[in-house]
Amino acid sequence: QVQLVESGGGLVQPGGSLRLSCVASGRMFSINNMAWYRQAPGKQRELVARVTSGGTTQVVDSVKGRFAISRDNAKNTVSLQMNSLKPEDTAVYYCYVDDNTPSGYQSYWGQGTQVTVSS
Fold this sequence. Notes:
The chain is mainly beta.
């Protein structure tokens, strides 16, 4: 089992910045993708950004140029730097990893951290 603990959420004014971090612990085989998703009230959970084990990153168009994802394989962490935040970025942000186990890929989710962008 892999446990994910997120930190760094909070309240920020429009145009501000936040950095989310997620630490993975427990029994891991080979962490493959690490990602951040978000879910706003009344909406479906959506991908924000992901990074592969090889370091290839992808961010969705709505946050491109403002958000950046990074990972530290030695520390089993994934971070999301969020700049120029907008009210529409308000959501619960979830950390996600998938682990390449001998019996196949296993997905794990964090508990979520609230990000609120408001003046």
